[in-house]
């Protein structure tokens, strides 16, 4: 979602927008009239980390060195501006502002794209790295009597009768 938001922003206001144009776009994003209409600036905020997401700090440093080497430093500069201005705008809209930081999503898509990984593989790649952790969380939940310890798990599967593989079409 971060990369889709980033591309939509660049398509509408350009690769090097003025502070005023970027500020206006981020306001419209938060109002739900720009971007995907969700009212979210993707890549900002985390359920656990508030002052900094150590993963995001690390991947941002890799993104910086890669962007310089690949001639894409302007993209990193724009993402950094989105991060800085977006956090300020989100906090200004909250009645009880809490500390907020960029999460690992903010810069991982840029790194993946600089590695030449197609956009349609970004989410699966991101998920593959987390499956063991998600499984561990689910096992922990089951072993502790159903107590949800980590973020909520909600299955979206439609229940269906099992069909042996040799009978499937």
Main attributes of the structure:
169 residues, mainly alpha, 7 helices, 55% helix, globular
Give a concise summary.
With 169 residues, this protein is an all-alpha fold. The protein is 55% helix and 0% strand.
Tally of helical segments: 7
- Return the string of H and E elements: HHHHHHH
Number of strands: 0
Q: How much of the residues is beta strand, in percent?
A: under 5%
Helix content: 55-70%
Q: Structural class, judged by helices and strands?
A: mainly alpha
Describe the structure.
The protein is mostly helical. The longest helix has 21 residues, at 73-93. It is built from seven helices and no strands. Helix content is 55%, strand content 0%. The two termini are 34 Å apart. It has helices spanning 2-13, 19-31, 54-70, 73-93, 105-114, 122-128, 131-143. The mean pLDDT is 88.
């Amino acid at each position: 979602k971060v990369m889709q938001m980033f591309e939509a922003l660049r398509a509408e206001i350009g690769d090097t927008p003025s502070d005023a144009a970027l500020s206006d776009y981020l306001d419209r994003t938060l109002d739900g009239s720009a971007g995907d209409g969700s009212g979210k600036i993707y890549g900002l905020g985390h359920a656990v980390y508030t002052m900094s997401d150590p993963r995001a700090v690390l991947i941002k440093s890799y993104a910086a060195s890669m962007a310089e080497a690949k001639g894409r430093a302007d993209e990193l500069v724009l993402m950094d501006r989105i991060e800085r201005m977006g956090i300020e705008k989100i906090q200004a809209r909250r009645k009880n502002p809490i500390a907020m930081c960029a999460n690992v999503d903010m810069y991982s898509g840029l790194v993946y794209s600089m590695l030449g990984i197609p956009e349609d593989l970004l989410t699966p790649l991101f998920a593959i790295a987390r499956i063991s952790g998600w499984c561990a969380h689910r096992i922990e939940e089951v072993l502790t009597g159903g107590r949800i310890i980590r973020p909520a798990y909600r299955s979206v599967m439609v229940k269906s009768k099992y069909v042996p593989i040799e009978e499937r079409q």
